[in-house]
Write a structure and sequence with these properties.
5-stranded parallel β-sheet; alpha/beta; binds coenzyme A; 4 helices; 209 residues; globular
C-alpha cells in the first residue's frame, strides 16, 4: 500500500513538472511568433510565421540543442548533430554552445553562422548572411558578445571576441573587428563607428525639479 502511495506521488510530481515545462515552452513559442511579427512587416499571420519562417525554426531548434548542450557532456554530440540537422533544413548554423537571450529574431536566415562562444542579449536581430565568427583557433572565448537590442545587417561579418554595446547597429556587408559602443552604428570594411543622431539618452526631467 505504501508502495502504491509513493508511485502515485511520483506520477503527480512528474505530471506537475511536465505541465510547468509545457507552459514555459508554449509561452516561449508565442513570444517568438509575436516578436517575428513585430520585426517583419511582411508577416501576415501567426500560422504563416510558425510554419514558414526558417529564422524562427532555427531558434527553436537552437533552444532544444542548447538545453541538451548544457545538460550533460555525454549528450553534447547529439546537440551538435541536432544543430547540423537544423542547418540542413534552414541554412542557419547556430552552435549549441552559444548563449542567446529572449526575443531573438533572424530575418530571411539563409547563410547565418553563430559560433560557439557567442553571447547575444535580449531583443537582438540578424539578417541573412551574418557571421558572428571567431578569429582565433584556440579553444577560448573567440566569438562576439552582443548587448541588448543589437541589429546586424545583411551579409555583415562580426569577428573575434569583440563587444557590440546595447542598441548598436551594424550596416549591411560591414566587417566589424573592433568593439562597437552602445547606441552607435558600424559601417564599412573595416567597420567604422558612428554615434547615432537619433539616440537620445533617456533623462528623467524629475531629477532637475
Ligand atoms: C547602417 C544602417 C543601419 C544605417 O541606417 P541609418 O541610420 O538610417 O543611416 P542612413 O541610411 O541615413 O545612412 C547614414 C550614412 O551611412 C551610409 N551607409 C548606410 N548604410 C551603409 C552600409 N551598409 N555600408 C556603408 N555605408 C552605409 C550612408 O550612405 C550614409 O552616409 P553619409 O552620411 O556619408 O551620407 C542601414 O543603412 C543598414 O545597413 N541596415 C541594414 C538593413 C538590412 O540589412 N536590411 C536587409 C533587409 S532584407
Amino acid at each position: 500500500m505504501a508502495d502504491l502511495r509513493t508511485h502515485i506521488k511520483d506520477i503527480r510530481t512528474l505530471a506537475q513538472k511536465t505541465k510547468k515545462y509545457a507552459s514555459k515552452i508554449s509561452a516561449t513559442i508565442n513570444e517568438d511568433i509575436a516578436n517575428a511579427r513585430e520585426h517583419d512587416p511582411a508577416a501576415r499571420s501567426n500560422i504563416e510565421i510558425a510554419c514558414g519562417y526558417s529564422g524562427v525554426h532555427a531558434i527553436w531548434g537552437y533552444r532544444l540543442a542548447h538545453a541538451m548542450w548544457i545538460k550533460s557532456d555525454t549528450i553534447k554530440i547529439l546537440a551538435r548533430l541536432l544543430s547540423q540537422a537544423i542547418r540542413l533544413v534552414t541554412g542557419i548554423e547556430i552552435h549549441p554552445g552559444a548563449t542567446i537571450g529572449k526575443r531573438f529574431f533572424i530575418d530571411h536566415g539563409m547563410g547565418v553562422v553563430i559560433g560557439e562562444t557567442t553571447e547575444i542579449g535580449d531583443d537582438c536581430m540578424l539578417y541573412h548572411g551574418v557571421t558572428l565568427g571567431g578569429s582565433s583557433l584556440k579553444a577560448e572565448k573567440r566569438h562576439p558578445t552582443l548587448g541588448n537590442g543589437v541589429v546586424v545587417g545583411a551579409g555583415a561579418k562580426v569577428l573575434g571576441a569583440i563587444t557590440l554595446g546595447d542598441n548598436a547597429r551594424v550596416g549591411a556587408n560591414a566587417v566589424v573587428v573592433r568593439d562597437v559602443p552602445a547606441n552607435s552604428t558600424a559601417i564599412g570594411i573595416p567597420a567604422k563607428n558612428r554615434a547615432r543622431e537619433d539616440y537620445r539618452f533617456p533623462i528623467d526631467p524629475s531629477i532637475y525639479i
